[in-house]
């Protein structure tokens, strides 16, 4: 049989008992004849705890030292899992990201994988070892450890699956798959058995927390089939794979699901003078500060001025508003801001070629009396920015009106 990469998140290895349960699952999988590479995150809230400690000893710790510190969280997990496997007489060896051949580039705290040299992993697999790799980290050109930022362990697992040509990558988490909506909000939500990488990436970008979109996109790029499963119970989960079957063709279900995000704020530049390069003046300072912008809306020019609005995460709101104020003042405008916002999105392949989805979404929200602040569309999603306290209601309304609870999945 071939190689399978498994990834276990922080909730899956939160305690010693959790680690023992993971070791038992790994042992059973190895007993079926698989060669296993296991990627592990830091235990539970270890990363948050380490960041708090850094803040207690320094007001402005260096990014390099932060990465040195945070990398120890995953290193604890891999060593403990190897010990738990040894206790079950399963040969296993733990590796840090650099020991596993993971080379990264970019900035401390947000590195990206540039290369993986899997020779050591292949050699250890040839020795019948389970190879346990610390997620979220690699080595840069200076020989320093560098972390990969948000979604780093998912990305590590998918990248390793591509590098070792694994049959699949299994992501084990605290949910049993991808759902048509958050089941904590919509009791009638269904697990989706199979979903395309495009749909999964869009759902992740729009607020679904099951997998990070950069890992999904990496899997699509290198043809890695990804299985999302529960760490705590057996089940088929959700398979993320390219759709190459011909059944149903254009009669297949277009809408994959409803996703939401409560981490949204809006900044609006009102009445600014516009011309060539205006939008660059607005958004270049945000990019230089590493602030990600999501929904962008520009109004038409009226009486020599225009309005530009955009959304950012709430943690970035104050800085984004300050930067926008500087640009707005120079362009003769004023800035407004609103923090308590969220967004809800309907996601599905081919929506652009099937008119009616946006109109149906707007009608459902309108009938429920839910105000829409901003709208963003593409061929695979329609997103509405709403008051935060109406988002969960919007999810339930849309799941009902698009009849997702009636779908046989």
Tell me what you see in this structure:
- The protein has 409 residues and is of the alpha/beta class.
- An 8-stranded mixed beta sheet has the order 3-6-2-1-9-11-12-10, with helices on both faces.
- Helix 2 runs antiparallel to helix 3 and helix 8 runs antiparallel to helix 9.
- The chain is built from 11 helices and 18 strands.
How much helix is in the residues? Answer: 25-40%
Q: Number of helix segments?
A: 11
- Number of folding domains? 2
Q: What gap, in angstroms, lies between the N and C termini?
A: 30 Å
Class computed from helices, strands and strand pairing: alpha/beta
Strand order of the largest sheet: 3-6-2-1-9-11-12-10
Averaged pLDDT: 90
Strand elements, count: 18
Can you say what the CATH homologous superfamily of the largest domain is? Acetylglutamate kinase-like
Question: What is the helix/strand order?
Answer: EHEHHEEEHEEEHEEHHEEEHEEHEHEEH
Poorly predicted regions are: 244-252
CATH architectural label of the largest domain: 3-Layer(aba) Sandwich
Q: How would you name the oligomeric state of the polypeptide chains in this document?
A: single chain
Query: Can you tell me the CATH topology of the largest domain?
Result: Carbamate kinase
Radius of gyration: 23 Å
Strand composition percent: 25-35%
CATH class of the largest domain: Alpha Beta
């Amino acid at each position: 049989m071939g190689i399978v990469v498994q990834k276990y998140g922080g909730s899956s290895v939160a305690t010693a008992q959790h680690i023992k349960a993971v070791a038992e699952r790994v042992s059973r999988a190895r007993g079926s004849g698989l060669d296993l590479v296991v990627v592990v995150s830091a235990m539970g809230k270890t990363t948050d705890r380490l960041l708090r400690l850094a803040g207690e000893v320094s007001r402005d710790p260096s990014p390099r030292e932060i990465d040195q510190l945070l990398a120890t969280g995953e290193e604890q997990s891999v060593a403990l899992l190897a010990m738990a496997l040894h206790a079950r007489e399963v040969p296993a060896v733990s590796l840090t990201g650099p020991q596993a051949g993971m080379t990264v580039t970019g900035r401390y705290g947000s590195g990206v994988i540039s290369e993986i040299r899997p020779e050591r992993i292949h050699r250890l697999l040839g020795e019948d070892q389970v190879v346990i790799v610390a997620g979220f980290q690699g080595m840069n050109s200076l020989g320093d450890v560098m972390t990969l930022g948000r979604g780093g362990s998912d990305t590590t697992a998918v990248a390793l699956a591509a590098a070792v040509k694994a049959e699949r990558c299994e992501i084990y988490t605290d949910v049993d798959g991808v759902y048509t909506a958050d089941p904590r909000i919509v009791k009638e939500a269904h697990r989706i058995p199979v979903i395309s990488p495009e749909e999964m990436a869009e759902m992740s970008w729009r607020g679904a927390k099951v997998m990070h979109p950069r890992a999904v996109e990496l899997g699509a790029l290198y043809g890695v089939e990804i299985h999302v499963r529960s760490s705590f119970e057996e089940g088929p989960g959700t398979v993320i794979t390219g759709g190459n079957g011909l059944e149903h063709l254009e009669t297949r279900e277009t809408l994959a699901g409803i996703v939401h995000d409560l981490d949204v704020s809006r900044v609006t530049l009102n009445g600014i003078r516009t011309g060539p390069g205006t939008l660059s003046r607005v958004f270049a300072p945000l990019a230089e500060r590493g602030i990600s912008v999501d929904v962008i809306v520009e109004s038409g020019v009226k009486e020599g001025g225009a309005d530009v609005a955009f959304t950012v995460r709430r943690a970035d709101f104050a800085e984004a508003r300050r930067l926008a104020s500087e640009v707005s003042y120079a362009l003769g405008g004023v800035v407004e801001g609103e923090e308590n916002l969220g967004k809800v999105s309907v996601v599905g392949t081919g929506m652009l070629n099937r008119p009616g989805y946006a109109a149906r979404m707007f009608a459902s929200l309108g009938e429920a009396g839910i105000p829409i602040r901003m709208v963003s569309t593409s061929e695979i999603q329609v997103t509405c920015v709403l008051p935060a306290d109406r988002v969960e209601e919007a999810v339930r309304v849309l799941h009902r009106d698009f009849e997702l609870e009636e779908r046989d999945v």
